[in-house]
Amino acid sequence: MRPFLLLATRADDEPADAEYEAFLLRTGLDASDLVRCRLEAGPMPRIDLEDYSGILVGGSPFNTTTVHKSATQQRVEAEFDALLDRVVAEDFPFLGACYGIGTLARHQGAHIDSTYAEEVDAPEITLTPQGLADPLCAGMAPAFRAFVAHNDAITVAPPHMVVLATSPSCPVQMMRVKDNLYATQFHPELDGEFFAHRQGFYADHGYFDPEALPEIQAWTRAQDVSGSWHVLRNFVERYAR
């Protein structure tokens, strides 16, 4: 099997490694079948799409709407734009989570701002009629819970973008472009323990009151978000080649 490629941007080793572990667990892949590239550490290498089954993008401390972006974030965004030019043109299998929805949506002309930002939560997310019919949502309940925490989100989706899942607090929780490019605002890789671990590293990033960290971590560990995990396993099962 050709491996999948995980494009990551977390600068701290511990949360970066935990994210990779979470993606391995939820996809069912082993390390040889999920190649990780940490873009914050250096320029994106030349990616030959024929070498991979698909591309995954994880979350990030970067925000799409940040006004004063670091040189690293500017480089990463330019590299994503160049890659997505090819990925979209070829309708190549792509699944972005959280920051990943920002990269794809920005490339496709969506309006993104802080209107639908969400603090740490596990909201009820509902599949749209299009989502109920989509193969990446196979096996999912019409309504499920998933972890979120983000400072910006899609406010206006372009007409060609298909909304697959929505929630009262964030209208675009999952979307598709063409046939094979997907993204979720929620985190389909996380369970309560992984998310609580991550919260400890990003307590001062504006997602919640840092003084409330112990209570938030306890709440997080008690949540059942297993219904959201189908997305990653379905992506791998559909596109492995």
Q: How would you describe the overall organization of this protein?
A:
With 241 residues, this protein is α/β, with parallel strands linked by helices. It has a single domain, classed as Rossmann fold (3-Layer(aba) Sandwich). The chain has seven helices and 13 strands. A hairpin with a 3-residue loop joins strand 12 and strand 13. The longest helix has 20 residues.
Describe the structure concisely for a colleague.
By secondary structure, this protein is an alpha/beta fold.
- Under the CATH scheme, the architecture is 3-Layer(aba) Sandwich
In DSSP terms (H or I, runs of 4 or more residues), the helix count works out at 7
By secondary-structure content and strand pairing, the structural class works out as alpha/beta
> What sequence of helices (H) and strands (E) makes up the elements?
EHEEHEHEEEHEEEEEEHHH
| Strand order, largest beta sheet | 2-1-3-4-13-12-11-7-8
How many angstroms separate the termini? Answer: 5 Å
What is the CATH superfamily? Class I glutamine amidotransferase (GATase) domain
- Helical amount: 25-40%
Q: Point out poorly predicted stretches.
A: none
Total domains: 1
DSSP summary, beta strand count: 13
Could you name the CATH class?
A: Alpha Beta
**What is the 3D shape?**
globular
Query: How would a crystallographer describe the biggest sheet?
Result: 9 strands, mixed
Rounded mean pLDDT score: 96
Radius of gyration: 16 Å
Proportion in β-strands: 15-25%
CATH topology: Rossmann fold
